[in-house]
Amino acid sequence: MTIRESIEEIEKQTLSPYAALSSNSKGRARKESEDDLRPVFQRDRDRILHSKSFRRLKDKTQVFLIPAGDHYRTRLIHTLEVSQNARTIAKALRLNEDLVEAIALGHDLGHTPFGHAGERALNRVCSLGFEHSEQSLRVVDVLEKDMNGLNLTFEVRDGIRNHRTSGDPKTLEGKIVQISDKIAYMHHDMDDAIRAGILKNDSVPDHIGNIAGFKTVERLDYFIHDVITESIGRNDICMSEPATKAMKDLRDWMFKSVYTNPKAKSEEGKAESLIESLYMYFYNRPDRLPMEYRKLMAKTKDPLERIVCDYISSMTDRYAIGIYSDLFIPTSWSIK
Questions:
Q1: For the chain, which domains are there?
Q2: 260-266 long-range contacts, Cβ below 8 Å, gap at least 24?
Q3: pTM exceeds cut of 0.90
Q4: 241-254 and 172-195 helices, crossing angle to 10°
Q5: CA angle at residue 95 from 37 to 28, to 5 degrees?
């Protein structure tokens, strides 16, 4: 018996009857030989962790564009906090931690530079539309590993595609990441807003704080405990009615106080214009796309709009600004 088979046997003996077992995976689009050490979801986790798109998350905006400080969250830190929350819940419910971690680490790989501002810009200017959850799936299916994709399992791909509120994950592990994403971003975005001076420590309205707590650590503890308590022994991931209402009220308040706050979002119009300009430039000059993207278009026959979105959404904030500067900002002239 291999080490992988021993781990799979331990899963069968110890995990919940509702868990997604590695040995029962629906498999990959392209068949591969099994690893002798790692079950399939652990292999997927490792592939995502070692991918270039994962590393680029460190230079992509979470909420605050190019913040002047070392402690604001980037898209990478958001991803790691989602993973931590999700693994805590999965462990308590005896669900598959490897699957949860793989989905969490991959859920935002397709996010644009400048966060949701970049996503809005691409969705507006591209006739095919743009949604970061679908782009995350395209990253792992097509764009990674020199345009050959990572060939992930069905369960990980399903969780990545369905992590947004409107999604319908087919596994409980996917549902855990879906709810952990919301728990993470609301709380770390509030923490960053306090750091930025947009909110104060005592800003949370009483009708939310009296239920979920007035401090970040209290609310995290409340929501994670509530999910675990409400989901134990059930083939679903649930929250109690008071927690569901508190989360909705907290999200509504965050949109009003932070996500649409002029102080926090003062630079987003510039970011959206930058992304739209880059899109139109490469759409009208496809010969200026990097060679790998031109080869991808010839290989897949995908429309130019999708290929341009592939390139722009892969950029970090810093890289997008650099490309824009090279294309549109004049430099000092001198005789060569």
A1: 3-20+35-328 (1.10.3210.10)
A2: 261/193, 261/198, 263/196, 263/198, 264/63, 264/64, 264/193, 264/196, 264/198, 265/117
A3: yes
A4: 40
A5: 50
- Calculate the CA dihedral of residues 193, 197, 198, 203 and round it to 10 degrees: 80
- CA torsion, points 322, 326, 327, 328, in degrees to nearest 10? 90
pLDDT digits (tens, 9 = 90+) for 112-161: 999 999 999 999 999 999 999 999 999 999 999 999 999 999 999 999 99
Q: How far is CA 130 from the centre of its chain?
A: 15
List Cβ neighbours of 110 (8 Å cut-off, separation of 6 or more): 53, 132, 133, 134, 135, 136, 137, 138, 139, 313
pLDDT digits (tens, 9 = 90+) for 283-301: 999 999 999 999 999 999 9
DSSP 18: T
C-alpha R_g of the chain: 21
Distance CA 169, CA 161 (A): 8
